[in-house]
Amino acid sequence: MKFDEKGLLPAIAQDAQTGEVLMLAYMNKESLEKTLSTGQAWFYSRSRQELWHKGATSGNYLNVKRVLIDCDEDTVLLQVEALGPACHTGNRSCFFRELSGGAGIISEDSLQR
Q1: What is the mean pLDDT of the chain?
Q2: Cys-Cys link to 27, which of 7, 31, 41, 81 (CB 3.0-4.6 A)?
Q3: CATH assignment of 9-111?
Q4: Residue with more model confidence, 113 or 84
Q5: pLDDT beyond 70 at 105
Q6: What is the pTM of this model?
Q7: What element of type H or E holds 24?
């Protein structure tokens, strides 16, 4: 695996049955190892600078079914069974808002939604 200069790599969580993208987070070597050994998703919180066991406080665990790496070995795809909403807002996916703008230009109004 090719971790960035901070020792992190992006990790995409995807519903194993539907293919829906649930969230994007970051992993360091330790969180990747914990994910592989426990079968549940562990990430690295960039804001808190600590390991984060997804669902430890909410009960919304991500049970990992498969772990795939991309062709460049710098991104991980976790195919998961989500035990509740993946997003901290209570939405099933973190990707629940649509960004729109004219001719590919994002307006300030669309960013404030």
Answers
A1: 91
A2: 31
A3: 3.10.20.810
A4: 84
A5: no
A6: 0.85
A7: strand 21-27
Please tell me whether residue 68 adopts helix, strand or coil conformation: strand
Instruction: Please classify residue 98 by burial: count the beta carbons closer than 10 Å to its beta carbon, then call 0-12 exposed, 13-18 middle and 19+ buried.
Output: exposed
pLDDT at 37 over 80: yes
Across 25-53, average pLDDT: 97
Work out the burial of residue 78: count CB atoms within 10 Å of its CB; fewer than 13 is exposed, 13-18 middle, 19 or more buried.
buried
Return the closest-CA partner of residue 7 out of 46, 62, 41. Answer: 46
Sign of CA dihedral 10, 13, 19, 22: negative
- For the chain, how many helices (H) and strands (E)? 2, 6
Tell me, what's the pLDDT at 71?
A: 97
The H or E element that residue 25 is part of is: strand 21-27
